[in-house]
Amino acid sequence: MEKKMGRPRSEKTKKAILDAAYELLLENGFPSMTVEGIAEKAGVSKATIYKWWPNKAAVVLDGFFAATELLLEVPDTGSAKEDLILQADHLAAFLTSPKGRVITELIAEGQSDEKVAKEYRDRYFNPRRLISKHILERGMERGEFRQNLDLELSIDLIFAPLFYRLLITGEPVDSAFVRNLISYAFAGLQGVKS
């Protein structure tokens, strides 16, 4: 039997670190945070944090996801259009909330820090893209779309305008916008390939 090295992770210590990371994220924002600050607030050493997480982004994102408990629900109303409206509307509501604004801050930070970009892509966006892909595949099976639909491009077509408004124009991202966006996207997705 292999002997384990070091002490096992204490759940109490882990929770203190994640709580500290989340609180500092909301108080100061990601760029101002440091592993030293997280360690001090949690009452642990920097070495303890680095033993369990490879970098600041990893511990901060763990803290964020632990605190916000973002459940990945897959809507299934029987209509791919309605399912995507629900998914996009929930995403828009979250991203425009105080907690969700952290994601847009992390996107901005990820432009100059590849580790941050990789973390939020792997842990936040990629799982949601898989849900969108599943919804579109179901729609194809039910005959709601043409069979040669490019799923990845369709996901970009649907969600890119939402992020364009959030990150560039600052225009409203509300339920009316989401419904119009999906309706316009569906007009193209249901059509004949040009």
Give a brief outline of the structure:
By secondary structure, this protein is an all-alpha fold. It has helices at 11-28, 35-42, 46-52, 56-68, 80-95, 101-110, 114-141, 151-169, 175-189.
Query: What would the average pLDDT be, to the nearest integer?
Result: 86
User: Could you tell me how far the N terminus lies from the C terminus, measured between alpha carbons in angstroms?
Assistant: 62 Å
Strand content bin = under 5%
H/E topology pattern: HHHHHHHHH
How would you classify the helix and strand content by structural class? Answer: mainly alpha
Give unreliable regions as ranges.
Answer: none
Rg from Cα: 20 Å
SS field, number of helical segments = 9
Helical proportion, percent range: 55-70%
Describe the biggest sheet? none
Shape: elongated
β-strand number: 0
